[in-house]
Each structure stands twice: as C-alpha cells, then as structure tokens.
Amino acid sequence: MNERLQQWRENLTEFSNRFSKKQKMMIGAIAAFLIISATLAIYIASRPNYVPLFSGNLTEVDVAQIKTELDAKGYANYQIQGNSVLVPEKDKYNLAADLTAKGVPKGDGVRLDIFSQNIGMGMTDRQFDVIERDAMQTQLADLLKMVDGVRNAKVTLVMPQETVFARENGETASASIVVDVEPGKQLGPQQINALYNLVSKSVPNLPKDKIAIMNQYSEMLEMADEGDNAYSLDQYEKQRKIKKDIETDIQKNLQNMLGTILGRDKVFVYTYVKLNFDKTQREEQLVEPVDKENNEGIIISAEKIQETYSGKGASAGGTAGTGETQIPGYPGATGGENVESEKVEDRVNREVNRIKQNIVGQPYKIEDISISVGVEPPNANDPASLTREVQANIQQIIGNVVRTSLSSQGTEFTQQQINQRINVFAQAFNGKQEVVVEGNNWTLIIVSSIAGLLLIVAVVAFIVVRRRRNQEEQAVAEAAETKPFEVPELQYAEEGEEVIVRKQLEKLAGEKPEEFVNLLRTWLADE
Predict the structure, then answer these.
(1) Cα(198)–Cα(194) distance, rounded to whole angstroms?
(2) What is the pLDDT tens value at each position of the chain, 527 positions in all?
(3) From start to end of 376-485, where are the E strands?
(4) d(CA 391, CA 424)
(5) Which has the closest alpha carbon to 153: 161, 162, 144?
(6) 3-state SS string over 281-327?
(7) What is the crossing angle of helices 497-511 and 513-526, to 10°?
(8) Contact (Cβ atoms closer than 8 angstroms) between residue 267 and residue 258
(9) CB atoms near residue 302 (< 10 Å)
C-alpha cells in the first residue's frame, strides 16, 4: 500500500514538473474558480425563492392576522418585510387558499358580512348603528382603493341621527377621507371629481359639499367646478391646433403653387381663417310633388258626381227671387218655366312625397378667410416692375381658393366680396440672405485645383509607402518565425556504454515520457 502511495506521489510530482510556475498558478486559479462557482450555483439552486403571500397593500393588522394564523398552523418558513409576508414560491398558492378560506386577512375594520354572523337579538340600536357605520366606512375605503393612484384610504362618516319627527331642514351626513396616493402619481381634476361622486353616491343623504378629502401630505383635494370643465384648457388647445392646421395647409399649398411659378424665394403667403366650432342639428320636413313637370301628386282616390234636372217649375235650389220680399240673386220659392240643370263634381285625392330630414352640421366650418400674398418684383427696387397683369392672375388664383373655402356656408359671394379678403402687394424681401457670386476669378480656381491635386498626390504617396513598409515588416517577421532554433548537443569526453545508455534514456524521456515512466517503474519493481 505504501509503495502504491509512493508511486502515485511520484507520478503526481512528475506530472506537475512538466508545467512551469506560471502555468501551475493559472491551473490552480481556474480550479479554485470552478469550485467556488459550483458551490454558489448549488447554494442558489437549493435556496427557496420567497414571494409575497398576498399581493396588494397590507396593513399592520393584516400582517398580524396572517402571522398569527401561520404560527397556529405550525408553519415557520416565512419572512416579514414591511407590510408584506414572504413565503417560498412552492407554498404560496396552498397557503393563500387555506388563509382565504378562513377569511384571513380580515382587515382592520368591520365589513358587511358581520350582520350574518354574530349579530344577536340582544344588540341595542346604538350598538347596531356603530357597527353599521364602521362597516360602511370599511366598504367605502375598499372601494376607493380601486381607483388608479390611490394606494390606501381611511374614511370617517358622521351619520345624522334618525328621528320619527318631521323636520323642515333635514340633517345630512358628512365624510372625512384621507387617501394615500402612490409615490410619483398625482390625482387629476377628473379623478378627484370621481372620488367625490363615488362617496356621495355610496352614502345616503351625503351632499358633495359635506365631503372633505385630503392626501397623506395634508393637502386638500378640492373638487373642480364642473362648469369650468365644459370648456377646459384641453378643448381650447384642440381647437387652436385645428385652426392652425387648416391655416398651415392652405398657406403651404399656395406657397408651393406660387413658388413654382414665381420662384421659391420670390413669394410669401400668410393665411388667417375664422372657424365655427358649433355642432348644429336641425330637422326638415319637405313636401314634393310626384309629377314635378305638372306639379301634381299621385292620385290615390277619385270620385265623380253628376246631377241632372229637367222639369217645370223651380229647379233644385229654386228660381232667383225678384219679388219685393226676396233677395236678388238668391233662389226664390216658385217658378213657372221649364227648367233643365246639370251639376258635375269631381273629387280627386292626391298624395305627395313627404321627406323628413335630420341634418347634423359638423363643426370646423370656415366662416371667414383672409389671404395676404407678398411678391418680390423682378426689380427689387422698383415695385412697379411687377405688372398689373401678374397681380391680377395671382388674385384670381387666390380668389378661387377663397370662394371654395367659403362654399360650405351656402352663400354666394360677389367678386367684390372675394377681393376684399385678398391682398396682393409687391415688396422687396429684405429678410432673405443674398449670395454674392464673384465672376471670372480664375486665379482662385487655378490655385484651388493645384492644391487639391497636390493633396491627392500626397495621400496616394503616403498609402504606397505605408503599404511597402508593412510588407517588409511582415517578411522579416515570417523569416524570424521559420528559422529553427538549434540546441547544441552535449559533448562528452567519453563514448562509453554508460554514456550511450544515458543518451538513449534522455531521448526516450523527451520523446516518449510515458514509456520512460513505465521503464522506471519496472526497474524499481525489480530492485
């Protein structure tokens, strides 16, 4: 056994002697790193991952209830961090289901389910009112927590005392609320109004002016006036943006069109529009004939009545009276002549087209528009160089745009009214940057060309020299690498048998170290 241990030690020593000191240090560092990494990986993999047992914001009372229940079950593998109870992830769902079935956490208030549990017949009205108010406060606080940005809430209600007597001015309830707003968030006017409406609708006989709400920083959250919200700043910004977009579109289109004709830097367009943001709605009931050519409706019923009379005496209706007691022109009572009469009556009922229209007028209609166009004349110093014909053409183009923009009003504008909304004027543009071009400066051109040519030649020469130098350095390096390193052989004074054996052993140890080790083992075993 000792010989085997000695042999292993010699083998290990022989194996380690093959490496230099630097290599041994590197191997040791790598081995230590692998051992430490494996140890940490095993530790992290075997360590349980703790997660919150219940999500949300737990109060100190909730944490105490959960801790008491876990201790009663004999479960000790939990951690408490702040208002959270952490348990291993594999046990979370089973524990949460068991605690929820037992009604844990119950919170720090009384909820409405107490009325179906421990309310006995011996409870007084005073006790019942206190429990009912506490339950309403708890339920209202839970309701407020569901609002985005509210982390927790505390509610205190003051309920009016009920009486059997009628009062002219009935007492109202009041509420004081403290909301814990999440860090980094701020409740907007709409959210604050929602809180007031939520509390007012949840408690009977509670007007909004009897509600006080503040945050955890003792800042009052006042309810915004609903009348001010009807025309808020957002609505104003929206209408202003729409107006600006319409003006920009008209101005850009005219600028591109006139700039193409007169030159990009020769024309400037400014547009101002007046919009109607009212959304109108009207109802129209129209009647139209079916036959529009004859202006007649369709016949739905027709009746023709014809009466004839022939005889002596008065006809049906009598004879026109001419006596002293009779009224001229009206039938009389008697008549002695032969009378023939005929009466024809046509009754026709016609139906027409009845049209009922509900017309909704969309907003954003252009009520008025004004366009001003500045044109730089061909001779900037002479405004008269811009001919009247060119100005008239520009005014006609813009007039078509104005007429089309105002066509939605349904009013026909005269040419004079259109011209009043257009202004075309000739003016030199002093704001634009003038570029001065020097003519026939051949000296500068020649000098620049020569300098550029010299720069190109210098760059090419530098690249060629650098490439040759790199090739020479590479050739020298390759020659140095290919030159073998010759080690002079040891010269011995004698060439005896021992010297020959020694040389053979050295050659065997250098070329085949494993066979050399086996040979040594054989010699040691024989001895």
Answers:
(1) 6
(2) 577 777 777 777 777 777 777 777 888 788 888 888 888 888 777 777 888 887 666 777 778 888 888 888 888 888 888 778 888 888 888 888 888 777 777 655 545 455 445 555 666 777 777 888 888 888 898 888 888 888 888 999 988 877 655 555 567 889 999 999 888 888 888 888 889 988 998 888 888 889 999 998 888 888 876 555 544 667 778 888 999 999 999 999 998 988 888 888 888 899 999 988 877 777 888 888 888 888 888 888 888 888 887 776 555 555 455 555 555 555 555 555 677 788 888 888 888 888 888 877 777 788 899 999 988 888 878 888 888 888 889 989 999 988 888 887 777 888 888 888 899 888 887 765 454 444 455 676 777 778 777 778 777 778 877 777 777 777 766 665 554 444 445 444 445 567 777 777 777 777 777 777 777 777 777 66
(3) 422-426
(4) 7
(5) 144
(6) EEEEEEEECCECCCCECEEEEEEEEEEEEEEECCCCCCCECCCCCCC
(7) 130
(8) yes
(9) 10
Q: How many helices (H) and strands (E) does the chain have?
A: 13, 13
Instruction: Report residue 408 as tokens.
Output: 């939605």
- Report the half-sphere exposure of 55 (CA within 13 A, side-chain side): 1
Alpha-carbon span 324 to 154, nearest angstrom = 107
Beta bridge mates, 79: 86
CA–CA dist 106, 138 (Å, integer): 11
In 3D, which of 170, 167, 109 has the Cα closest to residue 134? Answer: 109
**Tokens for 415?**
């040419």
Q: What is the pTM of this model?
A: 0.35
The C-alpha atoms of residue 240 and residue 370 are separated, in whole angstroms, by: 17
SS3 state of residue 410: coil
Q: What is the rounded distance in angstroms from the CA atom of residue 307 to the CA atom of residue 325?
A: 30
| Rounded-to-integer distance, Cα 331 and Cα 318, Å | 5
Q: Which residue's structure tokens are 């023709």? A: 304
Question: What is the distance between the alpha carbons of residues 175 and 206, in angstroms, rounded to a whole number?
Answer: 8
The SS3 call for residue 259 is helix
Compute the Cα dihedral for 502, 506, 511, 513 and give only its sign: positive
Residue with tokens 């002549």: 337
In whole angstroms, give the CA distance from residue 267 to residue 425.
10
